[in-house]
Write a structure and sequence with these properties.
Strand content: 15-25%
Radius of gyration: 14 Å
Oligomer: single chain
Helix content: 25-40%
Strand order of the largest sheet: 4-1-5-6
Structural class: alpha+beta
Shape: globular
């Protein structure tokens, strides 16, 4: 794998108000973050996803929409996403559409991440 680490960026705000607003939007408006559906339930992180994290064997950082700094400004409107970091550079590993196609299934998501990581050219670092 050519990536040093991954960043998962949720299409939700990570504040208490953001969590409550997300709960309301998903429950009553049918809006959701497909990455949230994969990694979490209403009770916290999915145990199935915790196992997936361990199998991936690559450091993962988690950000919410409100955590994005200027270095990720180009992502606004293209969330959720998974980023791969190679040194100081990053690239979009999975787009919102690719994450959405996983239909909340952790195993399908893991396979998509692995395939995308394998497609990154290795530069010998």
């Amino acid at each position: 794998m050519g990536a040093d680490r991954l960043t998962f960026v949720y299409d939700a705000n990570g504040t208490l108000f953001g969590e409550v607003a997300y709960l309301f939007r998903s429950r009553f408006k049918g809006e959701h973050c497909s990455l949230c559906d994969i990694t979490h339930t209403w009770h916290g992180k999915r145990s199935e996803f915790t196992s997936c994290e361990a199998r991936l064997r690559i450091p993962i950082t988690y950000l919410h929409r409100n955590d994005l700094g200027t270095e990720y400004a180009s992502l606004e409107g293209a969330l959720p996403t998974v980023l791969a970091h190679i040194g100081e550079d990053w690239l979009v590993l999975l787009t919102p559409e690719q994450i959405d196609r996983c239909n909340g299934d952790v195993r399908t998501f893991e396979l998509a991440v692995r395939a995308a990581l394998e497609a990154i050219p290795y530069d010998g670092r």
